[in-house]
Amino acid sequence: MKPNLKTMALASGIILASAGTVDAADPIKIGVLTPLSGTYTVIGQQVKWGLELAAREINASGGVLGRQLVLTYEDSEANPAVATQKAEKLFQVEKVDFLTGTVSSGATLAVGQVAERNDTLMATTVSFSSAITGSKCSPNVFRVNAHAGMQAAALAAWLKQDRASAKVYFMGPDYEMGRNTVAVFKTAATSSGFDEAGEVYAPLGNKDYSNFFGQVRAARPDVIYTSMAGNDAVRLFTQMQEYGVSKGVQVVGSAGTVTPANIEAMGESAEGFVTGVGYSPLIDSAENKAFVEAFRKASEGTDPDLYGADSYGLLFLYKAAAEKAGSIETDKLRKSLEGTEWQTPQGTKKMRAGDHQAEMPMYAVRVENGSFTIASKVPGGDAIGKDDCERF
After folding, report:
1. Structural domains of the chain sorted by starting position, each given as residue range(s) with its CATH number in brackets
2. Which bin fits 308, alpha (ψ -120 to 50), beta or left (φ > 0)?
3. Span 329-351, pLDDT tens digits
4. What pTM, to 2 d.p., does this model score?
5. What percent of the chain has pLDDT over 70?
6. Rounded distance, CA 126 to CA 129, Å?
C-alpha cells in the first residue's frame, strides 16, 4: 500500500506547528548567571534580590504575555571561563528564553558571544566596561546600568566643582573592568584639567595592597581614584586607612567601589568617598521610596544599591518590550527593546537603539557619617556620550 503523501504532509505540518507553539501557561525562563561565591558574592546577592522582587511583582500582576517568569540560577564565580560554560548549560540544557546576571565585564563580553551563537538575548545590569556597548558591542547584548563613561562624567563634574586642579593617582583591579574604568575616568579627568600622577593594577582577589602604597606616596596625589569592588574594596580601603595612605587625600572611584553591601564593613575608611552612580536609594520620588521599602523587606533590612535597582528595573524593561512586540522571539524582542522607554526606581530610562545602552540621569554621591548623600546630578543626555558601536 502506497503512503498517502497528502496525509503525511498534513500530519507533518501539525507536528511542526505543535512543536513551534508555546502554551500560554508555560513559564518564561530567565537565566541568571551571577557570582554566588567568591569576591563578588555581595554583588550577586543584590542582583538576586532585585530580580526576585521584580519577578514576584510582575507575576502577581499577571506575568508577561500571560506567562509567569521563572528564574534559573548558575554561579559564574565572576570568572569568564566558568561563565561561558554555565551560559551554554543555561541555553542548551535549561533552554532559558533570556539571560542576565553577569557581573564581571570580562564575563559579560564572553557570554555575549555565547548568546549570539545561541540566538538568544541577554542584558547586564552590572558590568561597567565601555567596550560592552562600544568597540565589542553585540546585537544580542543590552545594558541597563550606567557604563564607565557615564559614571566618569558625573564624578568629573563634581570633582571640577570641588577643586580647580589636582593630581590624580589611579588604582584598579587587573582585568577588563578595572583597566577600562581607569582609562575612561583618566580621560574625563585630564580633559577637565586634572594631572595624572600615576597608576597601578592589583590582581582580582588581592589580599595585601601595602606593596603598592610606596608608589602612591611617591606620587604625592591630591586624589586617588579606584575601581576596586566587593571584598577587594573593603581590604583596599581598610589598608589605606591603616597605613595612612588616604589621609589628607580625596578618594573617589567607580560606582561599585563603595555600596550599601560593603559600606558597613569599611567603617570609617570609606568616609568622604565620592562616586558617580546611576542610582541612589536617596532619590526623592514616591516610586523610589516604595521600591526601597519593598527591597528592604525582601532582603531582611538591606538597602538596594545600583546593582539591586538596575536588576529590578531590567525585568520591567523585558515586560514592556515583550508586550509591545507581542512576542519573546529573539528578532522581534530585539527590535522592540531598541528605543523602549520604561519606568524604574531611578525614573524614566530609555534603551538607545544604536548601541543597546540605557540612558539615565547620573548622580555624584558622597559618604558622610557612614551614609550616602547626593552631592550633584547630571542629566542622562549629557552623561551617556556618543554611540561607538559599529558592529550592527
Report:
1. 28-146+283-360 (3.40.50.2300), 149-277 (3.40.50.2300)
2. alpha
3. 999 999 999 999 999 999 999 99
4. 0.85
5. 94
6. 10
